[in-house]
Amino acid sequence: MSKKKQTDEKHTEQQNAKHAQLESYRSDGRGQAMTTNQGVKISEDEFSLKAGERGPTLMEDFHFREKMTHFDHERIPERVVHARGFGVHGQFELYESMAQYTKADFLQRPGEKTDVFVRFSTVAGSRGSAETVRDVRGFATKFYTKTGNFDLVGNNMPVFFMQDAIKFPDFIHALKPEPHNEMPQAASAHDTFWDYIANNQESAHMVMWVMSDRAIPRSFRMMEGFGVHAFRFVNDNGEAHFVKFHWKPLLGVHSLIWKEAQRVAGLDPDYNRRDLWENIEEGNFPAFELGVQILPEKDEFKFDFDILDATKIWPEENIPVQIIGKMTLNRNVDNVFAETEQVAFHVGNVVPGIDFTNDPLLQGRLFSYTDTQLIRLGGPNFHEIPINRPICPFHNNQRDGYGRRTIDVGQVAYQNNSLANNDPHTVTDSHGGYVHYQEKVEGNKIRARGSSFKDHFTQATLFWNSMSPVEKQHIKDAFSFELGKVKSPSVRTQVLDMFDHVSHDLINTVAANLGMTIPVRKNNTPPEQLYTKTSPALSMENTTKLPTTLRAAVIIADQYCEKSLAFVTDNLNQAGIQPIIISEHLGPITGAGEQTRAAQDSFLTSAAAVFDAIVVIGGANMNPNFATQSKHFIQEGYDQYKPIIALAAGTTLVDELTISEQPGIVTYAQLPNNAEPIITAISERRFWNRPLL
């Protein structure tokens, strides 16, 4: 074959490949149902959604907003960077049909699996900030359903700082680094944040969550997720129920303590994403069960709080969480930018069977998310980026704009039309068209908030009452640290006055720690005694405690006891605990029988803070430097209340620290018969009742 012929054939192959690539983006709306860019079929394209036939257009009309916004942005705008986050792929499997409550297609058939993409994130910091800061964590899930994309855009806390979205810009301005000196980064311990809190007291409940250990999760794999808002389920008969969504981690809900979080931020700013990435790579797939709280519409006003108030929970004792499915995260991204950074979530991405409520925070988010993606991703075609594309086809008359990938064919890009037989056409509810729930809306145009939204402190006290003594102490410490960084005496005093409505015990301790005068009480009876209800689901002390995927530092020295090391690593692996060999240096360590084990980490490159437990084996040749560094490592773990197991020569190090008899310390001078006490201690994770050194 001639060189020219080879060149021509190669060119033809390249042309065919390019043609196939372009063909995959061709879109022909002839004969097709009209859909939104998320693939949801459209039932009406002539009229916007209004409050009555002659009433104002409603903000929740996601089809109108998508259509108009796309048109408004058909000339290319610029794109900006988004916040710190990390994403992963997975699948959701339905346990039981929800057909009684919703016609959402992916919630109909038990056993059916739906692909998902989840993005975990911190809220306050920039992309380069540490991941173990005290902050809310985002927990956003995109379901790629057969009838369009459904985005459950939530947090690891079930409430938020405000009741109305119009306050969100003010809150973020107060939370972010102060503009005159651009400090502090990814932190709420400063004047403007606490000034906002003291002067916007609807935030009281959320602040209690943020000052708790929930704000410093041990892992993305070990935190709950909440949809925050009340949504609606709508079934085939047009009947509606209010619903709230919950993600429950199978590994339980676990957190770092503050001293660990600070230490880890310096050792590994990528701690949470590294933990997620490595466990998925090793086949330790995180799993979360999806729960729903379902409330009949007739019960909307039966509680002592407004169910549409985003600063309130629906207590699980009153409205139980029904587990309906499980999400398993099983595949890391191929490219962080292309997937994690370009994924575009939106609370307005719903499918037939899921609708909105009049929660004023939710209503504002329905506008804000599209607007955010437009500037962040450079234009109105962000839905065409591969990570955002629905798996079902989509057809409409939206055209052009920055980053357009679809190659639209034909001369028609409008409706109504005759040249294309009025395609793409709308479809009825019975054919899958999205029809908004017909809720009767009437009233005067008014900028106000209902009186049912005015109680800002009762559920904050409920949260406090539900905490264990250790959790309460951590909240006191958090308030003391945060307010200790506030320079304004006036702001500190205002905050103390505000949270005196939540708990006198809390404020008495914080005031003493700050050297401040305890506020004059308007009522001598503590709020926690006036309102005594508790909710066990709020305390992490009641969570699942499993050893699975925990990390244990196994400290060895030259001439280590090989039987002890084999016993420990074999039993830890069997229990699903990951043993990491630590020593004075990296590389091979020689045992008493001339076997060698490679140290995976060293005292210089690691610390107790990044492990869940410490196992000390030592060795016959423990030099003074090894002994000193080992004891420092052990003491740090002890002060973080972690389980410490000592075998063979390692018992001498624990004895020298005089901690052998303390809770959570398991020692064996001789090789034990079974590892059950070791696994039990590691599963417990923390031993709060031990005295600190």
Mean pLDDT: 91
Structural class: alpha/beta
Named at the architecture level, the CATH assignment of the domain at 88-193 and 208-357 is Beta Barrel
The parts where pLDDT drops under 50 for at least 5 residues are: 74-82
Question: What is the CATH superfamily label of the domain at 88-193 and 208-357?
Answer: Catalase core domain
Q: What is the approximate shape? A: globular
* CATH secondary-structure class of the domain at 88-193 and 208-357: Mainly Beta
Helix percent reads: 25-40%
The rounded Rg comes to 29 Å
Counted by DSSP, the helix tally is: 18
Strand content: 15-25%
Protein name: Catalase
Biased composition (Basic and acidic residues): 1-13
Keywords: Heme, Hydrogen peroxide, Iron, Metal-binding, Oxidoreductase, Peroxidase
EC number: 1.11.1.6
